[in-house]
Amino acid sequence: MPVLEVDGVKLPQSMSIARFLAKQFNLAGKDNLEQAKVDTVVDTMIDAMDKLGPIRRQADEAKKQADMQQFLADVLPKHLQNLEILANTYSNDGPFFVGNDLTWCDLFVYDMLETILQIDDSVLSQYSWLQRNRQEVEKQPNIAAYLQNRLKTPF
User: pTM for the complete prediction?
Assistant: First the structure.
């Protein structure tokens, strides 16, 4: 279990840690409404990943393959479409999900899609806004440096 210790206080739970750090580093949104929009995007991505989790843990390889095909063909597209709708609603026509600034939801969606793209590298072919968002995230200087130097780990 991930734990972050701050001033002697231990904070468990990865999403609580992510929200705390986002606020610490001004990536949570500029006000309460933006923060709610950011949380909406994150929760939408979590909904998709919650469907993927049991498939990844499936012991029966034939069932796992069939379930993965259904996820990629039927389940995931609905969530990706929902993310594009949220982006069109919240982004002010910019490349980031909320407002005109990078927030932690951009980083979270980038990371989760990285996992899915390892399964099928064409899943974003019909989602131009999500492709643009990934490109903009990758252009951030610290992100670009990290991506250039990180170790590739298998899914």
Answer: 0.93
